[in-house]
Structure formats: structure tokens, C-alpha cells
Amino acid sequence: MINKLKLAAFGLFLGATGTAQEVEFVEYTLDNGLDVILHQDNSAPVVTTAVMYDVGGKDRINNKTGFAHFFEHLLFEGTENIGQGEWFKMVSSNGGSNNANTSNDRTYYYEIFPSNNLELGLWMESERMLHPVIKQSGVDTQNEVVKEEKRLRYDNAPYGNLVNEISSKLFEKHPYKDPNVGYMEDLDAATLEEFKEFFDIYYKPNNATLVVAGDIDINETKDLIKAYFGPIPGGKEVTRNFPEEEPITQTIEATAYDSNIQIPAILLGYRTPGMTERDAYVLDMVSSVLSDGKSSRLYKKLVDDQKQALEVAAVNLAQKDYGQYIVFALPLAQTPLDTLVSEIDEEINKLQTELISQREYEKLQNKFENRYVNSNSTVAGIASSLATYQMLYGDANLINKEIDIYRSITREEIRDVAKKYLNPNQRVELEYLPKESEQ
């Protein structure tokens, strides 16, 4: 259920063209601290109920990792009023679907129901927040589920640990250095009391955002939310004091091995600003210039023209405290990894010294317009965006304003930001090699 960045995800997803309409919403806060956002769209009889918690892979207890992702599974085990194993049956038998995902910075749960089941969705999410059953049998069951997920998606998947490996080198102190899924030895060693304590700290209404989007009546929905969520007591304010990283001032060379691959890979990783900084938006555009689509600079050069790479991509991984900018390439035939690095650096250097053409700039703007329209094309997408903007950016109305940030980015900024962050002495160079290459 957790979102994973794999090889195929090193590109930007861009949707169909269109014209975006402003997303209208109502935002307020309950007395217990729960932030609520309502978006009414009566064009289809569907409603999304979603709760985002301000807890992610970077949060731990007693220095143990992986708790937030573990809870993503554990909180489907059941509640005082929903029996073990009944959650998914209840959703599907009422015509709905549901899921959850965890990042380093937040956890997101949602249901999509026919709109006549709005009350059911709200009740289920209030049950998850107020009455979860956290007992040893559920912990043991989900421990095996998480281990199997780790084996399937990381340990036994080709290139499955790419991001984990580069993150562990980019960060020395900040918890972003550890995998979102955590270390299995930490979960094995965790006590039931620690799981209960983790829940009590992070899964409170004042550490959450509830979004209801779709075929609703605003006033009726407010009454239901007050009835189901209003009585839930708030918790203590969550405080964090993560250590700051020292700047990278010289190239960090590293090697990692993967028994599931036959073709080596090269990764260049750069530590970049947090997601709310303007430079983070500019780096999104830098990524698109370099590797979004077959006409992008790196793909056209290394894959099409020079036939030195099977695949090449650049992506800006947005995170709250620090971003990660990663360039990835798979060599074709006997192309040395050093050659790929040199060719990639040549293209980055061009971005750092020359303005992109006006035609390229206009094409870039069109791509980001298209992506923006696509992200807000469904009520489920709108719900996710509203929760994300409110919790991670502190401004739900970015759903309407963020496109203006991209529109305002200039060709000069693209050049200057590439020059500011994407330099050899500011990065990790990771050779990701087949296991048999290990000496």
C-alpha cells in the first residue's frame, strides 16, 4: 500500500491537456484541533473521505524506525466496533474502495464511496482515530505482512533499494537517512507498549487533517463531522527537533550491491531545499528539461542519439525538511559508468551556463499546466491535494495558486538554481552494482 519510488517512477507523470477551474473549498478547525476541509462537487454521486496524519517515516520512538509505515497496516486491523479482518469487507460490501500510503513526512488514509455512504466513511475514520484495537496478535500479523512487503518491493525487486541507498549517503544525521519502511530488527524489538505510545503521540485530531470531497451538502457534512470527530479528545502538540545536516562540499563516492540485477546503474544524488522553498519548484522544472519524455535533453542524447544508456532520468524528490535530487542512468552494452557521469555533467553544465530556448520554455510551461489540470481532475485527486497542501505546505489554497508559482519561474531561475545545487562537489556518486561484482 505504501508509495514506492522504483525505476519507472523516475519520470514526471503528466496528464491530458485542459483548462483548470478554481477548486472551491471550506476550511475550519474543530475544538479538538482537527483541521477540516470540505469540497463540494455534485457532478457525480461519489464522495472521498480522507485523513492525513502528520507522521511519517522520519518519526520514531526510542530511536526505532518504521513505525509510521507499520501503522499504515496496523490501523486496518480493526477497532472496538469493527472486527478484525472486517475493514475491507465493510468497504467493498458498501460499494467502496480504500487504501493508505506513507511517506517520510505523512500518512494518508482514504475511502471512496457512493455518496449515500458518506456517514459510513466518516464513522470508519473516526473509529480508526478513536477506537483502534492495538494488541499483540495484530502486531504479530502485520509484522509478517510488512516483512513480506519489504522482501517483495525492496529486497527481491531489481533496483528496489536505489533510493534507500542514495538517501543513506546523502544524510548523516537527519532521519531521512533511514528507509521509510524501517529496519525489520527495530520492528521485531518493538514492544506493544511502544506501539501504543506511538499511536498516542501522533494519531490525534490536532495532528491530522480530514478532507471530505465530492457529492456532499456542506452543512449536513459539518454536522456529521461534529458528531463523529468532535468528541475525540485532542493530544499534546507534537514537537520535532531533528538535527541539521552540514553542507556537502566534496564528492561522496559510494558503492552498493543488488543480487537482483545484471546491469549496473549510476546515481547522482544532491541534497536540496525542502518542498516549500521556491527553489524546490524550480528544480521540478530542471528535472523536466533534463529527462521528461523522449525529447528531453538526457534521454535524447544518451538513449536516442549516442546510444550509451538504456534509461536515464532525473527527479526532484520533494520532502518537508530536505529534498533529494537524483539523476539515474543504466548503461547500454559496455558503456562505462564514468562515461555516463561525464555526459550527464555536460548537460547539467549547459543548463548552468546557457538559458533554455524560448520554445523549450513554452513547452515546459505547457507540461506543468497539463500536470496541474490532471491532478485536480477527480475528487479523489482534489482530496489528496487539499490534505497535502494544508499539512505539508500550510496553505490549502495552493491547490489554486501553485500553478502560478510555476508560471512565474523564469529561464534565468532555471539556470541559476541548476548552478546553485547541481555541482559535483555537492553530491553523492553511487555505483549500484550486481552482487557478483562485490569483491
UniProtKB/TrEMBL annotation:
Domain Peptidase M16 N-terminal: 36-177
Signal peptide extent: 1-22
Gene3D superfamilies: Metalloenzyme, LuxS/M16 peptidase-like
Record key words, sorted: Hydrolase, Metalloprotease, Protease, Signal, Zinc
Peptidase M16 C-terminal domain ranges (all copies): 190-367
Bilayer-crossing regions: none
InterPro entries to which the protein is assigned, alphabetical: Metalloenz_LuxS/M16, Pept_M16_N, Peptidase_M16, Peptidase_M16_C
Record carries keyword Hydrolase: yes
Sequence similarity: Belongs to the peptidase M16 family.
Name of the protein in its database record: Insulinase family protein
Species per Swiss-Prot/TrEMBL record: Salinimicrobium tongyeongense
